[in-house]
Design brief:
The protein has 16 helices and 20 strands. By secondary structure, the chain is α/β, with parallel strands linked by helices. It folds into 2 domains: about 280 residues, Aldehyde Dehydrogenase, Chain A, domain 1 (3-Layer(aba) Sandwich); about 190 residues, Aldehyde Dehydrogenase, Chain A, domain 2 (3-Layer(aba) Sandwich), CATH 3.40.309.10. A hairpin with a 4-residue loop joins strand 3 and strand 4. Helix 4 packs antiparallel against helix 6. The protein is globular, with a radius of gyration of 23 Å. It starts with 12 loop residues before the first helix and ends with a strand. The relative contact order is 0.14. Bound molecules: the ligand O=C(O)C(=O)/C=C/C=C/O. GO terms for molecular function: oxidoreductase activity. Its EC number is 1.2.1.85. This is 2-hydroxymuconic semialdehyde dehydrogenase. It holds the Pfam family Aldedh. It is an enzyme of class 1 (oxidoreductase).
């Protein structure tokens, strides 16, 4: 984070809860359905606006528009023209930075600095990075000596996969939606986006940007709604969809995979996690405390890459627990426009019930509560919001639900370990395999942890440090495939080999 909330022009909480109705965006047009659901701001549960739920007809219209656009002006653009247009999208997003921040804050209540310095700039960067990358990626060719004499040459060609369904989550709405839309469009595909019902605003606002910069109609479509028996299911089941990319819970991933099986559509998944944070006695303790505090509590613990299991080498365990406790208790909860706020609410009352259910389960299982474990008294209208205390437990066995199930809240369990073999075994003993953060100043320890942890992303002496050229995704039940850099090409293009006998 580069700036505290006080140095940024924050939309006041009342401005955030403006009348912000969200319509579907199909073939370049705003589409109302009259089937409305409420969008509420988790800061104080105030009404942000009404959202028009898309039905089968709207989803079909969106997929049809996306298919038509593939063969229309969009499909006829050169790679350079397409990439130039994506740069214009990114530039227009940054010109409307304040609007995207306000929209993100209205839906999520996240701290202003996090929206302003991370989510919105990354949302724009996701277009530029892939546009620039794909301009310069070679394909392969092989000169062949044919066994019965003569020669041949083989070369490969990439073409867009087609119409991509983008089903995206509510935790980092703009960042995670454009993490998929950026490469999808850079590769020449068209998209139908189904944002989470909790966070419709930024995907809708991006429709204005696409239209204003001249992205042809049907290239970017947005359909609002829920999962089962709603837009999510209608979209992933639609036979006109050529590929599905999804970030969210593993259970939903399984349902989407079942839908994708009909018609054998490929999927790209980033799913759940139960990520370990591992601190060795030789770690830089200040850096480790800062890193684990961020990986546990940033975005109110609602980051798929976040830490929910902390393992600390025994000689420094007590000191580490004391310092992490102090860090958690120093977090400032409040609305985005309040100076110094470092933690917002959970995304919704429903999600808060889930997280508080785990808070109760931890107590029932006999956890020692180091700090937190309940609901903060905000003392004003904020008490209507979805607030929970940052929480640290210890004393539970690895078999406990708290150590196996993803909570997705501002909480972690902390336990001591004695050997590197032990902590590798305990860290890997989970169905998930998304991310890990390891803190050590011993080079061989660092490389061994990187090699032996069963995850897709292993950060050493860092967390959420992102180079968008790298492979990004989860192992085991944390995902299928990798996106990021050239890895996104594998999902967003079809690769063909052409063999010519010379
Ligand atoms: O940083 C990224 O590109 C990304 O995908 C982050 C994912 C976070 C999920 O909660």
């Amino acid at each position: 984070m580069t700036a505290s909330a006080s140095t940024l022009e924050a939309p006041a909480a009342t401005q955030i809860a403006a009348d912000r109705d969200c319509r579907n965006f199909i073939a370049g047009q705003w589409v109302e359905t009259g089937r409305l659901f409420e969008n509420r701001n988790p800061i104080d549960n105030s009404l942000v606006g009404q959202v028009h739920e898309a039905g089968r007809a709207e989803v079909d219209a969106a997929v049809t528009a996306a298919r038509k656009a593939l063969r229309g002006p969009w499909g006829k653009l050169t790679l350079d023209e397409r990439c130039a247009l994506l740069h214009k999208v990114a530039d227009e997003m940054m010109r409307r930075h304040a609007d995207f921040v306000a929209a993100e804050l209205a839906d999520t209540g996240m701290p202003l600095a996090f929206a302003s310095n991370v989510n919105v700039p990354r949302g724009a960067a996701n277009f530029k990075v892939f546009a620039d990358l794909f301009r310069n990626v070679p394909t392969e060719a092989f000169a062949q000596d044919v066994h019965h004499g003569g020669k041949a040459i083989n070369y490969s060609l990439r073409s867009p996969r087609g119409v991509i369904a983008v089903v995206c989550p509510w935790n980092l709405p703009l960042l995670l939606m454009t993490w998929k839309v950026g490469p999808a469009l850079a590769c020449g595909n068209t998209v139908v986006v189904k944002p989470s019902e909790e966070t419709p605003s930024t995907a809708t606002l991006l429709g204005e940007v696409m239209r204003d910069v001249g992205v042809p109609e049907g290239v970017y479509n947005v359909v609002h709604g829920f999962g089962p028996d709603s837009a999510g299911a209608f979209l992933t089941e639609h036979p006109g969809v050529d590929g599905i990319t999804f970030t969210g819970e593993t259970g939903t991933g399984e349902a989407i995979m079942r839908a994708a099986a009909k018609g054998v559509r490929p999927v790209s998944f980033e799913l759940g996690g139960k990520n370990p944070g591992i601190v060795f006695a030789d770690a830089d303790l200040d850096a480790a405390i800062e890193g684990i505090t961020r990986s546990t509590f940033q975005n109110t613990g609602q980051v798929c890459l976040g830490t929910e299991r902390v393992y600390v080498e025994r000689p420094i365990f007590d000191a580490f627990v004391a310092r992490l406790k102090a860090s958690a208790e120093a977090l400032v909860m409040g609305p985005p426009d309040r100076t110094g706020v470092t933690m917002g609410p959970l995304i919704s009352q429903e999600h808060r019930r889930k997280v508080l259910g785990y808070y109760e389960k931890a107590k029932a299982e006999g956890a020692t509560i180091v700090t937190g474990g309940g609901v903060p008294a905000m003392g004003d209208a904020l008490d209507e919001g979805s607030w929970v205390e940052p929480t640290i437990w210890t004393g539970l066995p690895d078999s406990s639900a708290m150590l196996r199930e993803e909570v997705f809240g501002p909480c972690c369990h902390i336990a001591p370990f004695d050997t590197i073999d032990e902590v590798i075994g305990r860290s890997n003993a989970t169905a998930y395999g998304l991310a890990a953060t390891v803190w050590t100043q011993n080079l061989s320890t660092a490389h061994r942890m990187g090699a032996e942890l069963e995850v897709g992303i292993c950060w050493i002496n860092s967390w959420f440090l992102r180079d968008l050229r790298t492979a990004f995704g989860g192992a085991k039940q944390s995902g299928i495939g990798r996106e990021g850099g050239v890895h996104s090409l594998e999902f967003y293009t079809e690769l063909k080999n052409v063999c010519i006998k010379l």
